[in-house]
Amino acid sequence: MRICIIAHNAYGAMTGEKSGHIGGVERQTSLLATWLMRRGHSVSVITWGNDNPDDELHSGIKIIKLCRAEEGFPVVRFAYPRSYSLLSALMRANADLYFHNCAEDITGIIALFCKIRKRPFIYSVASDIDCLASIPTLDWHERVLYKYGIRNASAIFTQTKHQKKLLSANFLLESTRIPMPATPKKTLLGINTEERRQIKKVIFVGRIHPIKRINIFLELAQRCKEYVFEVIGPFDMEPSEIEKILEQIEKLPNLEYLGRVDVTQMHNVYIQSSLLCCTSEYEGFPNTFLEAWGYGIPVISTFDPDNLIVKEELGVSASTLDELEAGIRTVLHSPDKYRALSENAITYVEKNHNGEKIYEHMEKEFLRLNKSY
What we know:
Elements lengths: L1 E5 L4 H5 L8 H15 L3 E6 L8 E3 L2 E5 L13 H15 L3 E5 L4 H12 L3 E4 L15 H12 L3 E4 L2 H11 L4 E2 L15 H7 L1 E5 L8 H10 L4 E5 L6 H12 L4 E5 L6 H6 L3 E4 L8 H8 L4 E3 L6 H4 L3 E3 L3 H13 L1 H18 L2 H17 L2
Parallel strand pairs: 1-2, 1-5, 2-4, 5-6, 6-7, 7-8, 9-10, 9-12, 10-11, 12-13, 13-14
Antiparallel strand pairs: 3-4
């Protein structure tokens, strides 16, 4: 089957390029595309263009280029060159099925294209906010196109039970829940749980964007001077805001900013850390949670997907700064609690987020939809 995945920011994740935005969605796109290709499918990925406007082939996967993200004049560039280049790319893909993740205006354009061409279109929810009628991250015209897109999708995938309920309540749409697949990790042999707890290092992993509320993490570092704190990830903010945050970091002797760390080096980050801390306002199902749990690292978080942190005892769910601080101190001060949370985390990921099984589930859905057209 010919499968096309539309992921504007996935060029770096697909090609190994160090620049550009690489988040959980982009990482998952790369893993899914590679798995499908190895299963014998013809896979193409549509991404923003770069200095080389030609389509490329990387490890058996075709990278189809759009215009550059910054190309064109404000306002009118939505029509040309963005929409024009997207339609051209969709045509060049000539796929049997199209797959898109994240709430965007292009969701509607892809849905319309597939409707005209009589091809199945699958939309995959990336965040809880994608399931809200207001969708505050989008402008009014983007919301119109997005809502058209999900209402005309052949199928919708959600990551959690909560997203499934939100989508039904706010849009009267049914969806198929497919858990996030855990990303492959290196062996855990030789990693001692107690030794890792004794490191007493709390990490923040992800792009530094206002919704991630990095200021709360910095405040935790200020309050917990006896622990080591690390921030891993690129900035996705206005330059003036970046400068303010860097100034704050400079004043914290127990906090280090590592910036972007290549995915191949994240193993070393996790095995030398004690806790993962999430301070986000909202999320979908963070890829970083699965990565941390896969290494037996408890998560202290303001966001708890499907209340799993509480139900499965995978860390501490907190609502306030005080609760975050208390959670960090409680877990790091108790060897027995830390060991129990760590063991629960590894067991949970292996049981519920086996990548091979989840990709097989997705493939079955792809094949089923393709047969119905």
